[in-house]
Amino acid sequence: MLTLKDYKNIIDLKYVPVAREIVDEAEKSAICDEMLGVLLEERNEIAAFSYPYKVKRDLIWGYLNERLPNPVSARFLEIQDRLFRSESAERGIVDVSSFEYEDGLALWQGDITRLNADAIVNAANNSLLGCFIPHHKCIDNVIHSRAGVQVRLDCSKIMGAQGEAEPAGCAKITLAYNLPSKYIIHTVGPMVGLSVTEEDRRVLRNCYISSLNLAKEMGLKSVAFCCISTGIFGFPNDEAAAIAVGAVKNWLLENGGGMQVIFDIFLDKDMEIYKDVLANT
After folding, report:
1. pTM
2. Tens digit of pLDDT for each residue in 203-213?
3. d(C-alpha 96, C-alpha 248), whole Å
């Protein structure tokens, strides 16, 4: 398995701040036309752009989900980035420094792709290439789709060098490109069968520890976690929250703090679960 030292020269990990200009719908539509032209040519399909903007944007989302990690032109990246950064600004960037932290921990409910943490954590699959199902609502799809094709390309380079699937409980890092965060940490959680096993618990705990170790190695100061493995991977929400909070609190104690950790919650039921766990841990 590759360590950060092994792959940090394979991909670009130098963060450079970017400007986020909101562009009007006419320009967005023109960008979509140009991106669709490239994507349809790759698919050997005929371009037809007499669609409303939102339909064209959904087509791009789906085509990028299905697209293999093949190189793209500098022009494609330029227009993709202009569109995606505009969309990021329109969604609204949430400043994690404004959160109330207790012992280095904060709880926030909302879209993790809006957070300007140094890193957000993606619940990835073991290929690290993102979700190939068009318009799927999993966090892996959402993060890759909003960050840009560069993330799949970077992950492909890492995995090509590694030569095997990413082990569950481990983590890799890439730039976040068009997201407000600087980096994305990709970790593979356990997929639960009929019932949760001790190995499932160990692996989930390691997801949090591996991610925080990687953040520390990169010199990062804030990390936002989604609820790893609680979706289609089947880990019970309440037990997953207890493991997450316990693992992070222990890591902070063992490492002398120095890291702001946000538990990003999307579902109302998870918010109540995390409030209860934090109050009683």
Report:
1. 0.95
2. 999 999 999 99
3. 17
